[in-house]
Design goal:
BON domain-containing protein, Histidine-containing Protein, Chain: A, BON_dom, 19% strand, alpha+beta, 31% helix, elongated, 3 strands, three-stranded mixed sheet, 3 helices
């Protein structure tokens, strides 16, 4: 049988999520020098964090995602932040003549022996 103090000590899932949201906000603020970045919202549902809003660049977005994952009890973080500065372009791939896009149907017919 539970006592009255045990019943009141338990919190509902919504209260747990609210407490986690506050902890995540504190961790994000600490990662940003003490202040929560403008335009960033933290949502917690079933111990899963979703970050929304707009930040300056991809580095800050990744820093906030990492900070949001630090409080105990967080099961995962969905980073839906957009950035004002576009990410740097992807490095160029292999040149076409490198063989990376070789077509296996263009090889000569018959057996090919390779010396080792």
């Amino acid at each position: 049988m539970q006592t009255e103090t045990q019943d009141t000590a338990r919190t509902s899932p919504d209260e747990d999520d609210e407490l986690l949201r506050e902890r995540v906000g504190t961790c994000i603020a600490e990662a940003c020098g003490g202040d929560m970045p403008d335009g960033v919202a933290v949502h917690v549902v079933d111990r899963r964090v979703t970050l929304t809003g707009r930040v300056e660049d991809i580095d800050l977005s990744q820093r906030l995602e990492k900070a949001a994952a630090t409080p105990p009890g967080i099961l995962g973080v969905s980073n839906q932040l957009s950035t004002r500065v576009p990410p740097p372009p992807e490095p160029a791939g292999q040149p076409a003549a490198s063989g990376m896009r070789a077509d296996p149907s263009s090889k000569p017919s018959g057996q090919v022996n390779h010396k080792v």
